[in-house]
Amino acid sequence: MNEELAAQSIGELAPKLRDKQVSPVELTEAVLANVDAYNSDVNAFIRVQKEQALESARQAEQEIQSGNYRGFLHGIPMALKDILYFKDEPTTMGSKIHEGFIADFDATVVSKLKLSGVTFHGKLNMHEYAWGATTTNPHYGACKNPWDLSKIPGGSSGGSGAAVAANMSIASLGTDTGGSIRIPASSCGIIGLKPTLGRISKYGCFPLSWSLDHIGPMTKTVFDAALLLEVLGGYDPKDPTSVDRPTQNYSGELNEDVKGLVIGIEEGYFFKNVDNRVNEAVQNALQQLEKLGARIEPIRIPSLAMAEFAELVTITTEASAVHHDNLVKQPEKFGEDVRFLLEVGELMSGVDYVQAQQIRRKLDLDFAAAFEKVDVLISPTLPFLSPPIGDSTVDINGQALSFLDEVIRFTGPGNLTGLPALSIPCGVRDGLPVGLQIMGPAFQEEKVLNVAYAIEKLELMKGQKPSLKVLG
Amino acid sequence: MAEGIHRILKARGIQVPEAHQEMLAQQMQAVQQLRDTVDNSQLKDFDMALTHVPGGERL
Predict the structure, then answer these.
(1) What is the CB neighbour count within 10 angstroms for residue A336?
(2) Does residue B14 sit at the A interface (CB-CB below 8 Å)?
(3) Which residues contact A406 (CB under 8 A, 6 or more apart)?
(4) Cα dihedral A340, A341, A345, A348 in deg (nearest 10)
(5) By three-state DSSP, how is residue A297 classified?
(6) Is the model's pLDDT at B58 over the cut of 70?
(7) Which of B5, B12, B22, B26 best probes binding to A when mutated, by most A CB atoms within 10 angstroms?
(8) Count of CB pairs separated by less than 8 Å, A with B
(9) What's the rounded Cα separation, in Å, for the pair A454 and A292?
């Protein structure tokens, strides 16, 4: 029973909590039991906060019993990526340098979840300072993919992906600078939504790259992602990139009808050099959508040819500015891979950076023109299936290619343009989930969520989940 | 190239482990290949659109 409870989504649990059929304490205990059973193998947590969570669950129970139900998130146990500040609690950023850091305020997203009555039970593993996509963390240990413990869960929000997939958290949040929500969502077979830049406040989130960073939900269902976007979205004057645009009732207005929907396919960029198994799963999803009445429209966005340069220059340069002092004063405290990338960022020129921003402006306009012809763009989230932990290359149809070069090829444009993008599982191939990416026009997350909802209804995963029974 | 890279980083106060020197040279060659994808003629009309709000934060 406990195992079943922890496997449910927010959408399934909330009415039961509201109607007192399930108690927040019982639910928190069920989730913590999974942490006890699986985390020693998966290593999704940097810190588990059992007592604190149970105390918070008891409080939620009391409030609900006395008729003060706060809404869908009340009594829901969540663990978050250890890059979001909690007042008077340690936040490590997955690093050694910040292992004793204690924030004196809550991140805006944390404040909003606290107000909604969420029960927090831990801080999740991540790639050190979010600067990488494997979550093979040198200080807190490698996080492993619950679908296959020899494989990476993706990153940088790998702990969030693994914890949700292994039912060790009902839902979570990730941060995404080049794909760090969507990459682990794809690798772990869950939903990951990177909203439009400015939609969710980043105040109280340690930066990787100011102009590319986003925060977003990582969930079991599209409904849960929509719900979290509703709660977390909104203008925040404390975040200079926040945009004052109204949010919507995303969860209440989910609509699976894709009749007449025009899906753009950019074959020259988003389908080039893709593992055949990944391509086949995504093509299958597209065919199913066509059968439901959607139309596939090939489009071209030529400036995408410059996107990899713009992403690499922007992320390395901004990250190296964030960490410059520590790279000079205590470089040995960084993991080898992060130290190397920070050195790379120091070598880019000012001209490179300015050109990268010019490319972003061209991409903005080219994508806007594309979205005059199509409603959404669909692509694979990743061009490969999750590689083994420790590998610096990925195999794409027999070709060994650099992991670093390949991993953000399809997700990076969403960060450069700030457009909303979501990864949803669209099948399992050779025991590993395949993610499909949906991109939409700025501030129209509802379009992306509706297409994801339609794909979810197709049940392409055929109920397959990580085989948790063999863990522990 | 490795020597030039070492010199630049040293001037910025950064100690580079020996093992990184060759890797950095290879990485910067890859960056050069990406730099070659940049078509400046396509970018001339584009303001970099970096915005500062006079008066500072919107608080």
Answers:
(1) 11
(2) yes
(3) A273, A382, A383, A384, A394, A396
(4) 80
(5) strand
(6) no
(7) B12
(8) 80
(9) 9
A202 dihedral zone (left: phi>0; alpha: psi -120 to 50; beta): alpha
CB A274 within 8 A of CB A268: no
**What is the ipTM, given to two decimal places?**
0.93
Residues of B in contact with A363 (CB under 8 A): none
Distance of residue A340 Cα from the nearest chain B Cα, in angstroms: 7
How many residues make up chain B in this entry? 59
CB A228 within 8 Å of CB A247: no
Contacts of B39 in chain A (CB under 8 A): 305-306
Q: d(Cα A390, Cα A190) in Å, to the nearest integer? A: 23
Report the candidate in A356, A330, A354 with the shortest Cα–Cα distance to residue A342. Answer: A330
Residue A346 to residue B37, Cβ atoms within 8 A: no
Taking contacts as CB-CB distances below 8 angstroms, the residues of chain B near A331 are 14-15
The residue whose two tokens read 């991540």 is: A126
In three state form, how does the secondary structure of A147-187 look?
CECCECCCCCCHHHHHHHHCCCCCEEEEEECCCCCHHHHHH
| Beta-carbon separation of A309 and B43 below 8 A | no
The pLDDT assigned to B59 comes to 45
Under 8 Å CB-to-CB from A295, ≥6 apart: which residues?
A260, A261, A262, A263
Span B32-53, average pLDDT = 87
Question: For the whole model, what pTM was predicted?
Answer: 0.97
Q: Is B8 on the interface with A (CB under 8 A)?
A: yes
Ordered alpha helix ranges (H), A201-303? 222-232, 267-270, 276-291
Cβ(B30)–Cβ(A401) under 8 Å? Answer: no
Q: Is A130 left (phi over 0), alpha (psi -120 to 50) or beta?
A: left
- Looking at residue A200, its amino acid is I
pLDDT at A141: 98
Rounded to whole angstroms, what are the CA distances from A439 to A158, A225, A297, A373, B58?
Answer: 22, 15, 14, 14, 30
Q: Is A56 annotated as catalytic?
A: no
